[in-house]
């Protein structure tokens, strides 16, 4: 019984040494299987890499042995994209004047009509105003009368001067008579004194002395009379001098009256001249508002409608408005191209002649004028079109057609294909302005690079060769960027 039990127990529970050896063999087998799997996987990976390298090598070999693709290329054109401002512009006369009547009256003559070409100073119309004509005639007579008064006053001056000379001579004669009578009085005084002495000594009779006394007294009376004559002559001389001064003053007054009369006459003649309407410059009549026989009211009396309008159009102004964003770039002398709807296919070259230097606060634009010569008078005031002002043009960059850009640009960067060592090389470039047709290149390629235009037919590394007619630098002129 005990033996049987031991036998059964022996079968169910092997010895400890026998169980340990079984587990070791199992673990060893699992490790061996794992190592084999890893070896197989590594060998497969190495094989695939080798196969891939072989495939790439075969592909490169096929690529190198492939025929180059002929592509259209272009060389960058020197000069950047122009900054321009294209705005609506209208043609206006270089000069224009509304001619009003200075005097009121009836339009008696009209020498011109719409569209007539006139010269500076040419008489265009005449107004009939009899009152002004009469006033001119009257003032002319006043001038003649005032001039006659001057002649009369001058004659009085001459007469007074003659009297003055005569009285001056009379004074001289009277003074001479005083000297003569004084000498006679002195002679008779001495003689009378001798006779009195002789009478005192009874050398002569008293009668003789009395006779000499009478002679002495007569000489004294004559001297006194001559001295009074001198005083009278001097008084008359002074009166003559006064008359001369008065006559000269009358001449001054008369001459002043002549000046006044002439001024009035000149004013009257000016109004007569105003009756004739003349052209201020060479031009063309663009408006006529009255016909002969119409009553014309002067501007001074409330007339508001001009008789005629004359415009100078041998030179015209194209008026445009430059928007706020372009104002800092605008300068007098900037080139401008003007196209007009009425004259298609023509570009009129000009330059900015003047601008307001101030923006309109409502439209935020700056008034600008472009002068254009118009010798053939083909530009008519009122025509309109587009005035393109060239504000700035870079000469340090270059441009390429927009079709040469690969995909879209982002952040001022883009890609182009350039030919390098016979293959298409994708090149990153820095982009400036873009007008949709051409793009401005700031860096990344040079003006000697050949840029591929057929970007859809090549990839990076594709062998290419330029088409013969396209291997030269681009001839087209970069188109401007328009700001409308």
Describe the structure.
With 484 residues, this protein is an alpha+beta fold. 42% of the residues lie in helices and 30% in strands. It has helices spanning 2-12, 16-65, 130-200, 206-274; strands at 69-71, 73-74, 77-78, 83-99, 105-110, 117-118, 123-128, 276-278, 283-288, 295-296, 308-323, 335-340, 343-359, 365-373, 384-392, 398-401, 405-410, 413-420, 423-434, 438-443, 451-452, 464-466. It has a six-stranded antiparallel β-sheet, with no helix packed on it. It has a six-stranded antiparallel β-barrel with strand order 4-11-14-13-12-15. It is elongated and about 215 Å long.
How is the topology of this model organized?
Layout: H1 2-12, H2 16-65, E1 69-71, E2 73-74, E3 77-78, E4 83-99, E5 105-110, E6 117-118, E7 123-128, H3 130-200, H4 206-274, E8 276-278, E9 283-288, E10 295-296, E11 308-323, E12 335-340, E13 343-359, E14 365-373, E15 384-392, E16 398-401, E17 405-410, E18 413-420, E19 423-434, E20 438-443, E21 451-452, E22 464-466
Parallel strand pairs: 1-22
Antiparallel strand pairs: 2-21, 3-16, 4-11, 4-15, 5-7, 5-10, 6-9, 7-8, 9-11, 11-14, 12-13, 12-15, 13-14, 16-20, 17-18, 18-19, 19-20
């Amino acid at each position: 019984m005990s033996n049987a039990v031991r036998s059964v127990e022996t079968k169910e529970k092997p010895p400890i040494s026998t169980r340990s050896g079984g587990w070791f063999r199992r673990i060893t087998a699992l490790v061996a299987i794992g190592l084999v799997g890893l070896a197989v996987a590594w060998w497969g990976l190495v094989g695939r890499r080798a196969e891939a390298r072989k495939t790439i090598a075969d592909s490169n070999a096929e690529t190198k042995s492939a025929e180059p693709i002929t592509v259209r290329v272009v060389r960058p054109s020197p000069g950047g994209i122009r900054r321009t401002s294209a705005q609506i512009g209208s043609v206006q006369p270089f000069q224009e004047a509304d001619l009003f009547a200075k005097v009121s009256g009836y339009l008696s003559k009209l020498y011109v009509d719409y569209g007539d070409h006139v010269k500076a100073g040419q008489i265009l119309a005449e107004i009939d105003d009899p009152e002004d004509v009469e006033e001119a005639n009257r003032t002319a007579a006043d001038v003649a009368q005032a001039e006659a008064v001057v002649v009369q006053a001058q004659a009085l001056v001459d007469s007074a001067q003659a009297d003055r000379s005569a009285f001056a001579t009379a004074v001289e004669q009277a003074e001479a008579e005083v000297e003569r009578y004084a000498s006679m009085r002195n002679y008779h005084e001495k003689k009378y004194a001798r006779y009195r002495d002789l009478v005192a000594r009874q050398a002569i009779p008293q009668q003789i002395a009395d006779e000499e006394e009478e002679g002495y007294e007569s000489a004294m009376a004559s001297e006194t009379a001559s001295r009074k004559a001198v005083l009278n002559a001097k008084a008359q001389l002074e009166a003559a001098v006064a008359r001369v001064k008065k006559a000269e003053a009358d001449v001054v007054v008369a001459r002043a009256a002549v000046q006044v009369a002439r001024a009035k006459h000149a004013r009257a003649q000016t109004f007569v001249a105003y009756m004739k309407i003349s052209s201020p410059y060479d031009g063309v009549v663009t408006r006529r508002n009255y016909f002969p026989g119409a009553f014309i009211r002067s501007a001074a009396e409330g007339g508001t409608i001009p008789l005629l309008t004359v415009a100078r159009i041998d030179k015209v102004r194209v008026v445009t408005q430059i928007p706020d964003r372009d104002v800092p770039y605008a300068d007098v002398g900037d080139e401008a191209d003007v196209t007009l709807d009425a004259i298609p296919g023509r570009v009129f070259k000009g330059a900015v002649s003047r601008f307001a230097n101030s923006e309109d606060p409502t439209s935020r634009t700056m008034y600008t004028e472009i002068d254009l010569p118009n010798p053939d008078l083909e530009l008519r005031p009122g025509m309109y079109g587009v005035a393109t002002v060239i504000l700035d043009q870079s000469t340090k960059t270059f441009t390429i057609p927009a079709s040469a850009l690969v995909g879209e640009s982002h952040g001022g960067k883009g890609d182009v294909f350039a030919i390098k060592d016979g293959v298409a090389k994708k090149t990153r470039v820095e982009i400036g302005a873009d007008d949709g047709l051409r793009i401005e290149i700031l860096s990344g390629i040079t003006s000697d690079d050949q840029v591929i235009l057929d970007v859809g037919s090549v990839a990076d590394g594709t062998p290419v060769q330029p088409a013969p007619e396209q291997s030269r630098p681009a001839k087209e002129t970069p188109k401007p960027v328009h700001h409308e």
